[in-house]
Predict the 3D structure of the following.
Amino acid sequence: MRPETTDMTQDFSKYRLATRAVRAGQRRTREGEHAEPIFTTSSYVFGSAQEAAARFAGEVPGNIYSRFTNPTVRTFEERLAALEGGACCVATASGMAAILATCLGLLKSGDHIVSSQSIFGSTTVLFDNYLGKLGIDTSYVRLDDPAAWEAAIRPETRLMFLETPSNPLTTLGDIAALAELAHAHDCLLAVDNCFCTPALQQPLALGADIVIHSATKYLDGQGRCIGGAVVGDAERVGGDVYGFLRTAGPSMSPFNAWVFLKGLETLELRMRAHSAAAARLAAWLETHPAVARVYYPGLASHPQHELASRQQSGFGGIVSFEVVGGQAAAWQVIDATELLSITANLGDAKTTITHPASTTHGRLSPEQRQEAGIGDGLIRVAVGLEDPLDIQEDLARGLDALG
């Protein structure tokens, strides 16, 4: 007979991803609950003054204050770390908070970042307008040009940062090659794994040092909550990034952590479904006369299809395409949809559609958008879990009107 236990923190490394996504990180209380509870408490009671002092001094582990120690948040952190293959995870209030915590936890004034040009618009603003004020400089290079990455590295470079696949053009960075380059120059490689999630891509296994997530997207999967996470080793993430979170407080709420836990349980199933539907939509879009170009790594026409096939176990749910006629034509297609949700969020069960040049990347200058390849006729679709034919027919309404 199995012995009774309230501790579900056994080693889950022997189990496959889908099992880890359902089971890892849970600690059952004395109530013996099957589902993970939500600990809605700001503080914790100590057994004695000595115990309180030992906890605050870090001499013994345990809960102190929910800004930086909460059982529900910890369960999410341990589960995501198990999925990504990391030793430690720090959950944050948003994906942007995860990037901020990484940079301020690991960098200092005078340090230098080499970043892909193909990153989320708010990340560029964070690097330029706010980290720049602190004396942390950033250079931008083409994501798919390893020689440009190497040329941009300086003696003071400490971090290389990229999203792969990129938003919204699904350009890929060769994680293994960039990790080798980073380590040769005593740099850290941070990869935003938002589009693929650990269900489709494992950056740490390819040599990356840090994985960053906007949990708001596919980790949740239904567009319910805002959150972020940083995954990596015990020293940098568990020490430096966690230290920033503990002091500065961009913390994930227990309720949001619980929602993300429920999202992780279906992550692999959803990512396979998103990928299958997106591949079908991308293939159809390539045949439409009003579409000038389709961006999807699962297409043989994608210039990095071979790298995507080797680096990822699936191609994801993001499809972007250019229509002839610029912004006016793109807006006409978007406004003609009846089923798709016009919103800049992604990773939802509901398919979303947006015009990147005027939304997600609207804060960039025209020159920056041009350098990133984001034209006025570009449309991004985050393919959801509806019937793929209904998504196709909804887009066809506007595309057919363009002729």
About this structure: The first strand starts at residue 88 and ends at 92. DSSP finds 15 helices and twelve strands in the chain.
